[in-house]
DNA sequence: GCGACATGGCAACCATCTACGACGTGGCCA
DNA sequence: TGGCCACGTCGTAGATGGTTGCCATGTCGC
């Protein structure tokens, strides 16, 4: 591998000059030309490791998400990349699997790789960001609001959107509406439950707390929960699913059993889904969220004293058409 | 950030000893204890950047895939992680979007970050791996066989499985079977077409070349292609989709238009899919593929002279049940 | 001729690893 | 019992590749 010294020798200048030319500082036009030619001839690419060591931070951004197989999060990854790639950063996508241990290992890697910044959707409320914050690393929290720590935050309007979805079920004529949400220690889970409750309260109805289930935000959880609900002595006539994957799992069960209930799903179903007759779905602007989070992060990397932002993105109900985008 | 010097001072030893303790070389037990205590007290974590610079390679593995929103590739990512994480490596997931420019940018990053190895599903046949191979970096190619270059390769039995799927449609009584595949410059695309042709030949039938469509391996491509096929004067009575996303798009169209045709899909449909009545689906062992690729890579990192392997994984037809795994 | 400014080179620096050398101890032989 | 040799263990210092503060040199203008 050609080093900056090789280029310097070839061009007949010092390594410092090569460095200056390649990082765009003012250098005599003749030398600039010579350096450029030498670099090209040798196929020189700067050693990022050495750069990172000297500069004390790399051109890597960590993106830690709890489920790589959820299209919502992959959409976020896309958005993050949209914004970061033009700025010369590379995204390191890490799947924490909602596992605190795995997550903290990735946080450690982010620290010891001297990554320029981190965008993280915390596994749950116990996620520890202090290794990053203590060292003054740029951090943006997405999707799940930690409430306590002070970072930039980009989240969805979970509660409002959940309420809107539940309300739409009422308007379709449903009366007994179950709520299937994620783990109780995840902020989005509880917020969406609150939205489900809100919709009841707005109509002066008591939410059917016996129909509130804490599941796992995954396909399998949606499947088994729907089975359990359908087998109840007094089953619900509609279900609100607090995320997309559980919604897909529920449909899977409904298809298998050839049954129908009303369904409201937070987040778009995958393409080709067997959408039930009575069904409302909200869009989740994942890509937008990723883009915004990346912009906030870039601003903070450039100037650590940038004031904190807390962005709340709408997740409106999608028009009833079959052509739902994947994310 | 505490450095190895801080730990050395605190423990009253030289930095070299600290390094030796932390990398498990034999050191006097008393000193070992002191060093460990000092490291813990200071919250020391080794600076990976400096390590990488010194060792000439990092603990990062690049995984370059053409579509992050395809569950097949995310399953691969999971498998790769399964195998690499216990070995102390971190995966850098890069989405090339089937774009040669983006892809080559990521290859450049891999080189200049001194990544320990690369697993890549090439965007198409023009993918250039020479920057990696010339520098002797460990490379494993997955999913799409470059045929020419010499690397470890892990692929699916594209042709055989495509043939099996098409044949299953014949056995369900279909006669006029369209084939919708990906871009013509992608190896898996053409292999799967060959499989579709094989199934015809085995029955002494001429494949309906007018029903062969090169599309994009994406949902939208499946949707529009299915529309076009259905609107033909002499439409097919079944369609073979050469990947999962296009299959989902086709179902989307069928649902919208409330039409039915036979369908064979290479790769599992997403959960909750509206599976047509006459439908066969093959499984794609993505996670397995990822795991295997990672193992091959690790072997090559340890010993660059390991003989090349070419692994071909079966993609068998799934039993006809609704409970299809996501990948 | 002197001062101001532009420009490029020297060398220190980033954090870690490791070859080499120094030192100490223990054993063996005279 | 003393001296020498061998071995084991730890410290010193150089190397990894690129950046940048500081200084020397050169040029231009007054």
Automatic annotation (TrEMBL), chains A, B:
Record protein name field: Ribose operon repressor
Q: Which UniProt keywords apply?
A: DNA-binding, Repressor, Transcription, Transcription regulation
Originating species: Agrococcus casei LMG 22410
- Start and end residues of each HTH lacI-type domain: 2-55
Q: Which residues cross the membrane?
A: none
Q: Which InterPro entries match?
A: HTH_LacI, Lambda_DNA-bd_dom_sf, Peripla_BP/Lac1_sug-bd_dom, Peripla_BP_I
Q: Tell me which SUPFAM superfamilies the record gives.
A: lambda repressor-like DNA-binding domains (SSF47413), Periplasmic binding protein-like I (SSF53822)
Molecular-function annotations in GO: DNA-binding transcription factor activity; transcription cis-regulatory region binding
């Amino acid at each position: 591998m050609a080093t900056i010294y090789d280029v310097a020798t070839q061009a007949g200048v010092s390594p410092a000059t090569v460095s200056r030319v390649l990082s765009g500082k003012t250098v005599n036009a003749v030398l600039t030309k010579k350096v450029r030619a030498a670099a090209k001839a040798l196929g020189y690419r700067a050693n990022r490791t050495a750069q990172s060591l000297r500069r004390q931070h790399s051109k890597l951004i960590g993106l830690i998400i709890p489920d790589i197989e959820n299209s919502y999060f992959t959409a976020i990854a896309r958005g993050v990349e949209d914004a970061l790639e033009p700025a010369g950063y590379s995204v390191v996508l890490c799947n924490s699997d909602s596992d605190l241990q795995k997550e903290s290992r990735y946080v450690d890697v982010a620290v010891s790789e001297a990554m320029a910044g981190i965008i993280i959707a915390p596994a749950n409320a116990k996620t520890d960001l202090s290794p990053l914050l203590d060292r003054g690393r740029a951090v943006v929290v997405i999707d799940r609001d930690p409430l306590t720590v002070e970072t930039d935050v980009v989240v969805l309007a979970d509660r409002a959107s959940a309420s809107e979805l539940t309300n739409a079920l009422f308007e379709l004529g449903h009366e007994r509406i179950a709520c299937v949400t994620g783990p109780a220690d995840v902020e989005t889970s509880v917020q969406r439950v609150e939205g489900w409750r809100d919709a009841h309260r707005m109509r002066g109805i008591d939410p059917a707390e016996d129909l509130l289930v804490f599941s796992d935000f995954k396909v399998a959880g949606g499947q088994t929960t729907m089975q359990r609900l359908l087998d109840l002595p007094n089953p619900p006539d509609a279900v609100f699913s607090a995320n997309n994957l559980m919604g897909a799992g529920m449909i899977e069960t409904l298809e298998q059993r050839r049954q129908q209930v009303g369904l409201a799903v937070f987040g778009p179903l995958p393409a080709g889904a067997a959408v039930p007759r009575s069904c409302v779905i909200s869009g989740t602007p994942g890509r937008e969220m990723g883009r915004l989070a990346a912009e906030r992060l870039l601003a903070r990397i450039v100037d650590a004293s940038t004031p904190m932002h807390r962005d709340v993105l709408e997740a409106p109900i999608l028009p009833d058409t079959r052509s739902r985008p994947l994310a």
